[in-house]
UniProtKB/TrEMBL annotation:
GO terms for biological process: fatty acid biosynthetic process; lipid oxidation; oxylipin biosynthetic process. This is Lipoxygenase. Residues 80-208 form the PLAT domain. Belongs to the lipoxygenase family. It comes from the Eukaryota. It comes from Gossypium klotzschianum. Residues 211-469 form the Lipoxygenase domain.
Length: 469
């Protein structure tokens, strides 16, 4: 009796995998294994099929031919953000880096899929082979700052559902990774900066947008979750650099500079003695005169903000423009002497600072007039006379302009609490005839009894300004 080959279907898990079945690019094939009966054995009617197989195994008559693992290609789309101002320069760097990957495979962006399942051989999560992000295929030649690049992953048939992705940036500059999508339905919302490997050797970990409770987290992702949490918390040591993304906190012990003198020393805000919200820990060295105080910010140790919390380029330009316009307020005393009048005649003079048709004849250099344009406040854009009405001023105050300065009118006419030797009489010049037209037919006495009349108190710091006005 000649040897007989028998084909046995592959494992059921290959076809019950939801991720593989939903994929549009995976191969639709069955994995089989072949067994060959090498030693013939006469079957008698007294032996059942199960007994025959058991006897064959006992006599080592069955040879299992090694099977070739089935692998699949998984397509992904990686969305990267580019700065419009630096787009062409970044393009040249990235294209150069990607071209070198074909030579020494030492540059580029490398990605690996991590399965939610555990590999029984290693006891750890299954990891795919590295896929290289090819910059040269999708060149960002348009003005859109978000560009999508294609990437291909090679995974085994029993890989399972991906739950995380590892990213290694071997380029020379940081990369803003917006999102990664696999096969159109598995999404990774990254929204984070990936630093070069030379600055941060650890691989960045991104998880899918599927949320899990701690006790429901898949076994393949638990170790990565704990590792990511440790990296975000930090170890409380070292000096923070701008490329870090560590969310560690400390008390406010850098408000002063005691090394310059005792008058520059400031107390520590935070802790049991002076409770106060915390700030991001920076790890700057202590001052020489006070070990509990941290050295202030300077050019070599700037203020630390986690990289993902820092302003984007558009926000930076907006803030810088607003700061520059704010500096123009220091030039107002100079312009005051160049104008014909030393006083503001009406509120329209203030509005003229925001209008495009205002007269710039008083400015010393006509060509720089556009530098003094201010963006009008939203409330002024809607209603230019809003600040002239009492009801709008009251709304501003009640809405939180300075609610601590509001109190109920108890005595009429109001009496000031300021020092009469410095500010004159404490009796207000306000009379009932000044208010009667605004009280809807009621007297001041009735309004005061209803406790619906409020007064705004101005403190000593603002009083010199009010006198000047």
């Amino acid at each position: 009796m000649a040897g007989t080959k028998i084909e046995i279907s592959g494992p059921k898990s290959l076809f019950s995998n939801e991720f593989l079945c939903n994929s549009t690019s995976l191969l639709n094939s069955r994995k089989t294994r072949t067994v060959e009966v090498r030693k013939p054995m006469a079957a008698t009617a007294a032996l059942t099929a199960v007994q025959i197989v058991a006897k064959l195994i006992e006599l080592d008559s069955v040879k299992v031919i090694p099977e070739t693992p089935v692998q699949f290609t998984v397509s992904g789309q990686v969305t990267v953000e580019y700065d419009a101002m630096e787009q062409m320069k970044e393009l040249m760097f990235n294209w150069w880096d990607s071209s070198k990957t074909t030579i020494d495979a030492q540059r580029g962006v490398f990605l690996q899929l991590v399965s939610s399942d555990i590999d029984p051989r290693t006891g750890k999560a299954k990891v795919s082979k590295e896929a290289i992000l090819d910059w040269s295929r999708d060149l960002p030649i348009n003005a859109n700052k978000f560009v999508t690049h294609e990437v291909q992953f090679l995974v085994d048939g029993n890989f399972g559902v991906p739950g995380a992705i590892l990213v290694t940036n071997k380029n020379s500059k940081e990369l803003y990774l917006k999102s990664i999508t696999l096969e159109g339905f598995l999404h990774f919302d990254c929204q984070s900066w990936v630093q070069p490997e030379k600055l941060h050797p650890e691989k960045r970990i991104f998880f899918t947008n599927k949320a899990y409770l701690p006790n429901e987290t898949p076994m393949g992702l638990r170790e990565l979750r704990e590792k990511e949490l440790r990296e975000l918390r930090g170890n409380g040591e070292g000096v923070r650099v701008l490329s870090d993304r560590i969310y560690d906190y400390d008390v406010y012990n850098d408000l002063g500079n005691p090394d310059k003198g005792l008058e520059f020393a400031r107390p520590v805000l935070g802790g049991q003695r002076r409770p106060y919200p915390r700030r991001c820990r920076t790890g700057r060295p202590s001052t020489k005169s006070d070990p509990k105080s941290e050295s202030p910010v300077n050019d070599t140790t700037p203020m630390y903000v986690p990289r993902d919390e820092a302003f984007c380029e558009e926000k930076k330009r907006s803030v810088d423009a607003g700061s520059w316009k704010g500096m123009m307020n220091n030039l107002f005393p100079f312009f005051k002497h160049s104008t014909e009048s030393d006083s503001v005649n009406s509120f329209a003079d203030i509005n003229n600072l925001y209008k495009e048709s205002r007269n710039h004849s008083n400015f010393p250099v006509e060509s720089t007039a556009d530098a003094f344009k201010f963006d009008p406040p939203n409330i002024v854009s809607r209603d230019a006379s809003c600040c002239l009405r009492d009801d709008e001023f009251g709304r501003f105050t009640l809405a939180g302009m300075n609610p601590i300065s509001i109190e109920r009118l108890k005595v009429f006419p109001p009496v000031s609490k300021l020092d009469p030797s410095l500010y004159g009489s404490t009796q207000s010049a306000l009379r009932e005839e000044h208010l009667i037209s605004h009280l809807d037919g009621m007297s001041v006495h009735k309004v005061r009894e209803k406790a619906t009349t409020l007064t705004v108190l101005f403190d000593f710091a603002s009083w010199p300004t009010l006198i000047a006005i």
